[in-house]
Every structure is written in structure tokens, then in C-alpha cells.
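Sequence only, no structure available. Ideas?
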Amino acid sequence: MRRGFAAAAVAVGLAALLPPVPAGASPSTQVFSDLQCNDCHAIPGVPAAARTDSCVGCHAWVKSVSGNPAAREKAMMIFPKWARYEQNVKTYFTVPDLAVSAARLDPAWVRKYLADPYDTRPAMSETMVRLGADPATIEGIVSWFASRAIPAAATPKPSAANVPAGEKLFTERGCTACHTFGGRFLGPGIAAAPDLQHARERMTDDVIAAWIRQPSTFGSVQMPDLGLTAAEALQLRDFIVLADPQTHASPVSVATSAPPRSPVAAPRWDDVESRVFGKICVHCHMDPAQNEGRVGPGNGGGFGWPGTGIELQTYGSVRTNKDRILAAMHRREDEASRDYVQPGELPAVLVRPKLPGMPLGLPPIPADDIAMVELWYANGAPQ
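Reply:
I predicted one. C-alpha cells follow.
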């Protein structure tokens, strides 16, 4: 793997290092605002972030304006690069509602996941950001999840005898239209639907059965009610928790037989700005002079991480921060085998670098585009 971050053979047992979920707690929701979770998620009791601060809110606004001819004409006059916004805004339209997540996810799994997230939705280009949060802060989130969990009725222990019937239901009731299931069912999937190979870790057996039988019990959900009997729900549950998902390990190296090539023979500032810095980096690393004082979470700090003090909207700042910029891009490549896996793959177990890679929460910048940035720097960063 690049830049010396080796794959680890054994994951750290985080659950053993943290205290158990407290019973009967009334946890504060302030932690969600402090970590800017409301920039993306709807969270009961937590106001949505202002559009100018919100990843989801801003992207939804761009999409809405683009669909309104009069509003779009006005936006084109106010924002010189509006056409680029429309072209680049492709993410953060689908994110989990934390009310539903808390109602069904096992708090013990949430604790481990927040400390070291991984890709659970291979059809979604976004992933859970790696938070710069200490164990006590994570525990505050876990306590909130535990306080909102909806109890499920006790069910029989999963039985291998139910697996064949459960697999038949899985295909006949259309589960493959939305979900992948490891390498066993590699259907196209939809962004919001998790790969079901992870269900046995994310939820208890009882909750999985209740979720399959009547998803609406857990809130306003996209999962449809399949009209299953209790016995059928158990058959489908047992298939999901016992069947071999037929996965293979995600590759931990981005090395290829030939080094990536720059898509531009002699890149200049306009090339790297339009393809990389102005396309993605600027969303978190804003120039305050161009954004009414806003600097973004990458420049000023966010999601528990300190600010870098780097804006990536102007030539001068990008030119003078070469080493830090390239190191952050390559760290994201290192994390990709855990944060972005293909259907049929298991997320790799990694030794995480001290600082996260960039762009945080999104796939790595394509290797050819990184090669273009490196060539631009090597040529003296021409304007």
C-alpha cells in the first residue's frame, strides 16, 4: 500500500477498550452539532445546518435551482461558475436518517464503526467520514443511539435449515433489486441499500427479523413491507445471517504495472483547478475572501479534526502547499480499500494514518488526476 501504511492482520478490539452503553441515559445531542453530523444527517432534536454550511443542504439547493429556469437564470448571473456547480454536484443527495439508524442498529457495532468506519453501501459514492473524535465523544453518540433503540421481540436462534427457503424468498420477493449480498448477489443495488453481508454485524438477530417483517416499526423508511409471515421473516433472516456471502478481500494496494499518466501533457493552473481543486477540494477549503468569510471544515476545522489553515481556491495557496496537498491525496488512496469497496469485496483492515486522507468522505481523486497535479508541481506550477 502507498506511503508506508501497511495493512493490519488483526483489528483493534475497540469494544473492549470502551465502557458499556449506559442504561437509562438521557444523552445530549450537542455532540452531533459539535462534530457537524447535521451537515449531512437528519437528527431528531438537532437543527439542520444552514445551507451555506451543509453538504446535503447546499447540494439539494443547487439541484433545486437547476430545475427552475427562472432561478437558474438568476444564479447564472450571480455565480460565474454556476454551470460547473451543476456539473460537479453529484453527491450527498442520499444519506441515512439517524432516527431510523438509531432505532435498529446495535450500539456496540456503532461504537466500533464510528472509531473506524468502513463501506457498507457499495452503490453509494459517499461514505461515513472518519471522525476526529476521542472515545468519550464517541461514547456520547453511542449513548444517544442506545436511548433511541426500538426493542424487538425475542425470536428463535437462527437455523441453517431455514437458509434454502430464505434464499428463495430473497430472490422471489425482489430483494436483489435494491441490495447486494457480498459476492453471492451482485445486483446493481441502490445507493441507500446496504450490502447485506454487513447486516449480521450491524443489527441483532431479533431486530433483523423485526425489520424484515415490518420495517415501518422503526420509523419512516425506504424499505418496503414485503407482506411476509412471521415464519417467512425468520427464513429470510436466517439466510442473511447464516449464508456464506462469498466475498473476497479488497485489494490494499493501488499499485499498477505502469504509473498513472497525466490526462494533460503540460498542465497549467486552469487544468488542475477545473479537474481537481475547483471540482472537489474547494468545498471544504474555501478562500474566505470569496465566500463571505466562510472557510469550510477543511480550512477551519470540522468533524472533530483541527483546521489545516489551507484554502484551495487560489493559485497562490495551492502552489505553496504542495507537500501537504499531495500527502493528503495519497492518504485517501491508502484508505480506499476500507472506505470504498466494490460489490463482493470485504473492507480491508487497515492501520489508519494519524490524519485522514482527502477528500474526506468521498472517493480518492483518480490516479490520473493526481499524476496531473504532480506533473504540474514538477513543472514549476505554471499559471
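Residues 269-378 form one domain.
Hope that gets you unstuck.
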